[in-house]
Design goal:
It contains four helices and seven strands; from the N terminus they run βαβαββααβββ. It has about 140 residues and is α/β, with parallel strands linked by helices.
Length: about 140
Amino acid sequence: MEGRFVTHSTAETEALGCRLAEGLSGGVVALYGELGAGKTAFVRGMCRGVGYGGEVSSSTFALVHAYTGGRVELFHFDLYRIADEDELESCGFYDCCEQGLVAVEWSERLGDALPPGALTVRLAYGEQANDRVITIQKGGAAC
């Protein structure tokens, strides 16, 4: 699923995340966007897309949340506070990449560590307050 999409509410952003995740069984989804652009809402939708029915929250203070019970395990990372690749290794990022689907907020902190073939999701503010312009592409190109 690639392309440019415009959503007009948090529910529509979640629905797009759900549609994306329904077709995934693993890999990395690298999310980029300003604070409040909808990254966590998109991941909430991804969790629904893999069949997870529980609570989904921001990983800001926990660094990573693992969502199990769906058809694939989804690991939700927030790298805002990651300082270097050693911290990335110690938090289990690379292990999670081999175990399931990984959604990464603040992916710009990955630098060269972004796995090849990752899906890149860019979320930006649209014309209206609740509008989001979301671009999804393959290739793992850093922003």
